[in-house]
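JOB MANIFEST
job_type = single_chain_structure
chain_count = 1
residues = 238
[input]
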Amino acid sequence: MNTIAVLLASVAVMAFSGCKEADDHYVANGAGGDIYVIFGESATTDLELSVDHRGYVGTNYAGDATYDMYTNASEWQIVPDYSQCFDPDISWIESWPAEGNDDGRFTLTFTANTVQGETRYADVNIVSNGQVIQTIKVKQEQAQSVLLDIVAIRKYVNCDANAYVATIPVNANVFWEAETDDVWITLSGKTNSKIDLNIEPNDTGAERKGTVTVYQVSNPKNVQYVEVTQSGEVSTGE
């Protein structure tokens, strides 16, 4: 019995029993019966891929990962999901082909990571009729350069006693957050590249100082500080 016949026979058993063997890459999904996905042993079968920062897969320095797929899905597409990345709008996984019908072969290639200063993750979803029928998880090493910086001139905010909003640009290629212990400073408007400091009116009559801490989520020791000084006097503008 040839390899294809063995695979089809295995699929028939699974469809009948509703079970799956531990080594089969199989997903029960979809109305009207089970949709199966089997990756042939003649190529890559891994459902989790580790990629270095240059785009090489695993320890053999292969530039791509090829899958031989046996499926009863009449049509399918390869759809990467980058929602876990620092910038989810950057596409760094290519599939050729990106779609097909029934059994087929596809190859994944990976762009070098020069833009995210920490490990980035993606799900490569095989989709049929709007449903995910299999997922390959990809983890790629961080870029060689980690960036979290606020230019020196924006690290100091000086304002009078009136309410004031200061927009602080943040240059980063990592996930970051900001916090302050000063109740008269509220943080808002955060994006990947800036944050707004909303400073309340100072009715104490005295100068006050506060600090905003900007830190890398995965490495809180990587920090930047913004020092805020607010006068106790209202400027007349004269």
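[summary]
Residues 3-140 form a domain with the Immunoglobulin-like fold (CATH 2.60.40.10).
Helices lie at 3-17.
exit_status = 0
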